[in-house]
Design goal:
Layout: H1 8-23, H2 27-39, H3 42-49, H4 53-67, E1 72-75, E2 78-81, H5 83-111, E3 117-122, H6 124-129, H7 131-141, E4 146-151, H8 154-162, E5 168-171, E6 180-194, E7 206-207, E8 216-217, H9 224-234, H10 249-256, E9 262-266, H11 271-275, E10 280-282, E11 284-285, E12 288-297, H12 304-322
Parallel strand pairs: 3-4, 3-5, 7-11, 8-9
Antiparallel strand pairs: 1-2, 5-12, 6-9, 6-10, 6-12
Length: 325
């Protein structure tokens, strides 16, 4: 009768189990010990950790049983460390920091899209103000993901989104379509922008009725900012018939320089020129505001790519509003 086969796998498993039982520490017990040792008091640790003193003490006793050494000496004024406690305390901070760093890396990995492609469309003003920084941050954070960014008029942006050609779009006002899911990014006033040569350059504010007699440059597209300005004027029975309709922010700012024309824009669109004194922003009365939204199709699942790009866009808009320079 042949001999029974050996069972090396069982012996390996038992060896590993032995190592685990002798050489691994419970992270929660180590965490409590570290803070008690750092603070020198169970009472203070109870307040800082918001954990009952009895529970902390019990965890430390179990840790002492694990290492086979007393770690803390209780005194009338708190606790002091034994020699073994001093050694473990010196190592505990590095161990806990390494664990925290590892968990952070795992969290970043979960939030980071692995490959794939994301597409977005935005109108010219948003493209020039925000998208360069959005692209930089997204590419740095997710180098394995392909990003396609379109610049289009507001009407074209809606068309690209509605047709499914892009995953995300920047829109300037609430759409009536129930097909869209909207995330508000910011609300900002629109101001009358003029050069220092313009007759209104010294004005503290400009009444809405004054727009009827001004050479106001409007965008070409009938959606977006132009629609907001026209609706604002129509409320006061003002009809704008501009001599210039320009679909370029840079071209608009260049035209304003000679002092004949003005435009209705957000301050951020001209922040650098305003800071240098090349353009002046004048409040309108009553106030005219626009709201930026990040839009997607409601029936299109929010992929990790879309969520990641959405986070970068929201962060850039928030940063630009906080520090426009």
């Amino acid at each position: 009768m042949p001999p029974a086969p050996s069972k090396p796998a069982t012996r390996v498993k038992s060896a590993i189990a032995g190592i685990a039982s002798k050489n691994l520490l419970d992270s929660k017990r180590l965490f409590y010990f570290f803070h008690v040792a750092r603070l020198g008091s169970l009472t203070t640790a109870e307040a800082v950790l918001d954990v009952a003193q009895s529970a902390i003490s019990r965890q430390i006793q179990q840790l002492e049983a694990e290492v086979g050494e007393q770690l803390l000496l209780r005194t009338g004024r708190g606790v002091t460390l034994t020699e073994a406690g001093e050694l473990l305390f010196r190592q505990a901070e590095a161990i806990l920091q390494e664990m925290a760093s590892t968990m952070e890396m795992i969290d970043q990995m979960k939030r980071r899209p692995a490959g794939g492609q994301i597409t977005i469309a935005s109108p010219p003003t948003f493209s020039s103000l925000y998208m360069p920084e959005v692209v930089k941050r997204f590419v740095d954070a997710f180098p394995e993901t392909r990003l396609v960014a379109y610049e289009a008029s507001t009407g074209q942006v809606y068309d690209l989104l509605a047709s499914g050609q892009v995953d995300l779009a920047i829109v300037l006002h609430l759409a009536t379509s129930q097909k869209l899911s909207l995330q508000k990014l910011s609300t900002e006033p629109l101001l009358l922008i003029v050069s220092p040569r313009h007759p209104l350059s010294k004005a503290k504010s400009v009444a809405r009725e004054s727009l009827a007699s001004l050479d106001v440059v409007l965008p070409v597209g009938s959606h977006g900012s132009r629609a907001l300005v026209e609706a604002y004027c129509e409320e006061a029975d003002i009809h704008l018939d501009p001599r210039l309709r320009l679909d370029s922010l840079n071209m608009t700012k260049a035209v304003l320089a000679d002092g004949r024309f003005c435009a209705v824009l957000p301050r951020l669109a001209c922040a650098s020129e305003i800071a240098r004194g090349e353009l002046i922003a004048i409040p309108l009365v009553p106030v005219l505001k626009r709201t930026l939204y990040l839009a997607s199709l409601r029936d299109r699942p929010q992929t990790v790519h879309m969520k990641a790009l959405g986070r970068e866009i929201a962060a850039v808009v928030r940063d630009k509003i906080t520090d426009p320079q």
